[in-house]
Design a protein that fits this description.
Elements lengths: L1 H12 E2 L2 E2 L11 H8 L21 E7 L4 H7 L4 H9 L1 E6 L6 H10 L3 H4 L5 E4 L4 E4 L26 H6 L3 E6 L7 E4 L6 H13 L4 E7 L1 H9 L4 H23 L3 H5 L1 E6 L5 E2 L32 E2 L2 E4 L6 H11 L2 E5 H7 L8 H6 L3 E5 L11 H4 L3 E2 L5 H4 E8 L5
Parallel strand pairs: 3-9, 3-10, 7-8, 7-9
Antiparallel strand pairs: 1-2, 4-17, 5-6, 10-17, 11-16, 12-13, 13-15, 14-15
Helix pairs in contact: 8-10, 9-10
Length: 413
């Protein structure tokens, strides 16, 4: 059934070869509101009722978020991984779009707050904030030289508040199983380089959670290996296998420890922050080389450093000298198989969402470049990015469509 639903969503949101976010209904941004609503709390917009129809008495929600495992990846692996087919049989898979940009820094700030990128202002992995006169990576909040930004606080990276205080006020206990400590929930950390450590951390979380509860488990390993090897690689398939072995074992452990009545009130969800598209490192365009040579067209920090780092290779924000905006637009639209959006068009089309905040507007590039299927970046500064195979951040359907799979624990026994 989800194949037909995915096709309908694809057709509705299609803009040629690109797929636009479905912010008004079937969007990743509505997952936090949906989880909260199931547990009796209100933290913002939720998915349409059909997404969770039949889940009426829920006292615990478990969300496994597998970074980068979009709907195309689910569809490509479902015949090979019995667990995915079993999950489909036991529950349902609802296709959603993610937000734009389809990348972790923006999407996860949305996931933990319910705020869209147009509101929280994280325009990509890399952010330039003119008020702070800083370029930094939103995750892990570092400059390119590895130092901490000095003119902006970590708390000001995203202009939003998390949903967890509101969940706590409604009596919902939240636990996070992640490779890094959580500051606003009960943390259970594991080693991202050793997936065997995930099992103990997850078991600790579910054993200590007092219902009504929300347990969030984050697994970034598939995304990491896809960057270097691509989704059509043996290394990627091996990582996918291990990841879902851990998820399946976690669910089995949870089922063994849960009585029949509680199992019917436990909802298990599988989702992703975005999907992936394989690019071609031999053809990924270098903006610092001919015919582009864009570095001299860029605005600079007050110390004269060109503002290269804003967005990502699939979502390039160009902060240009005023007299170079239109010439660069003409050059890029001539030389690239890409959509090049002027700032005005980004705002009019609500590409990052409606109701732009001042934080978002000042960080938004004069031009935003979204290549159809390649990565576009600065090889003189970050050649490794142009060498990535699997990428995300753009508007390719394989990046934009994600699964929201749900099943009660008793149906998965």
């Amino acid at each position: 059934m989800f194949d037909a639903d995915a096709q309908a969503l694809r057709e509705r949101q299609s803009d040629g070869d690109y797929l636009l976010p479905a912010y008004d209904d079937w969007c990743f941004s509505r997952i936090p509101g949906t989880v909260a609503d199931l547990l009796g709390a209100d933290v913002g917009p939720r998915l349409p009722a059909e997404a969770t129809a039949g889940y009426d008495d829920v006292s615990r929600v478990i969300v496994f978020l597998v970074d980068g495992f979009g709907l195309a990846q689910w569809d490509g692996e479902r015949d090979r991984i019995p667990f995915l087919r079993e999950f489909e049989r036991a529950g349902r898979v609802t296709p959603l779009t993610t937000v734009f940009p389809s990348e972790t820094a923006a999407a996860m700030n949305t996931f933990h707050s319910g705020a869209l990128p147009s509101e929280h202002g994280v325009v990509g992995w890399n952010v330039y904030d003119p008020d702070a006169d800083e370029m930094f990576e939103a995750l892990p909040f570092l400059r390119k030289d590895g130092t901490q930004p000095e003119r902006i606080d970590r708390a000001d990276v995203a202009d939003c508040e998390s949903v967890y205080p509101d969940l706590a006020a409604a009596g919902v206990e939240t636990h996070h199983v992640t490779p890094f400590p959580s500051e606003e929930t009960v943390p259970h950390t594991y080693d991202p380089e050793d997936l065997s450590t995930f099992s103990d951390a997850f078991e600790e979380a579910v054993e200590s959670a007092v219902d009504p509860s929300y347990v969030f488990a984050y697994l970034p390993q598939t995304d990491a290996v896809a960057h270097t090897e691509g989704v059509d690689s043996e290394a990627y398939r091996e990582t996918v296998d291990e990841t879902f072995d851990r998820v399946e074992n976690a669910i089995a452990t949870l089922a063994e420890a849960t009585d029949e009545d509680d199992a019917g009130e436990t909802l298990v969800c599988l989702t992703a922050d975005h999907g992936l598209v394989d690019t071609d490192p031999e053809r990924n365009p270098d903006l610092s080389e001919p015919p582009f040579d864009l570095v001299s067209d860029l605005r600079t920090l007050t110390d004269g450093t060109p503002i290269r780092f804003s967005g990502s290779p699939r979502n390039v924000h160009l902060h240009l000298r005023d007299d170079r905006i239109e010439p660069v637009y003409d050059l890029l639209t001539t030389e690239l198989d890409a959509r090049v959006f002027r700032k005005r068009e980004v705002l009019e089309r609500e590409l990052f969402g409606p109701a732009p905040s001042p934080t978002f507007e000042r960080r938004l590039g004069d031009l935003v470049v979204v290549h159809r299927n390649l990565g576009v970046w600065y090889g003189d500064e970050e050649p490794g990015n142009l060498g990535f195979v699997g990428m995300h951040g753009g508007l390719h359907p394989d990046e934009m469509l994600i699964p929201f799979a749900t099943a009660t624990l008793d149906s998965l026994r």
